[in-house]
Design a protein that fits this description.
Layout: H1 2-20, E1 27-38, E2 44-46, H2 50-53, E3 57-61, E4 67-70, H3 74-77, E5 87-91, E6 98-104, E7 109-115, E8 124-129, E9 135-142
Antiparallel strand pairs: 1-2, 1-3, 1-9, 3-4, 5-6, 6-7, 7-8, 8-9
Length: 144
């Protein structure tokens, strides 16, 4: 009788335990709310390409920090190519921000992406300095 109860209770306990932890999505979907650049006077000003990027989305792979898909012009949002890949500085869990930097040594350019932390279910703020000098900000939500 006791042995039969253990076989019944153990799988039930494992199921409850497994479902009590939230599973992180492998991707984050980010919505662009602001498109800026640094002016000659040191102020952030509206970028000339704002109309092409405002309210568009891009997807970030959490494991690598790569910008995978976008509804905007991909070549200006991408942070990797055949020779370069983002260096993931932190993974972007509930406590730490996702931070990824890509260095393009030959051109002296870089791409810097930071997606902040937020309580589960809340949008995460992001900041993205692209390798072409656009400064994007907005919010990200859990993807797939």
């Amino acid at each position: 009788m006791i042995l039969r109860n253990i076989f019944f209770i153990t799988p039930l306990f494992i199921l409850v335990l497994a479902t009590s932890f939230s599973v992180q999505a492998s991707e984050l979907v980010c919505s662009i709310k602001n498109v800026s650049k640094l002016s000659e006077n040191g102020f952030f000003v509206t970028h000339g390409w704002t109309a092409n990027y405002l309210n568009r989305e891009f997807t970030v792979e959490r494991e690598t920090g790569k910008v995978l898909r976008t509804t905007a012009l991909k070549q200006r949002l991408s942070n990797f190519d055949k020779e370069h890949a983002p260096i993931l500085l932190s993974g972007g869990d509930q406590i730490d921000a996702l931070k990824a930097v890509t260095l393009y040594e030959k051109s002296g350019q870089y791409a810097l992406l930071e997606i902040g932390s937020a309580p589960a279910g809340n949008p995460k703020p992001f900041f993205y300095h692209t390798d072409v000098g656009m400064i994007l900000s907005g919010t990200c939500t859990e993807g797939t």
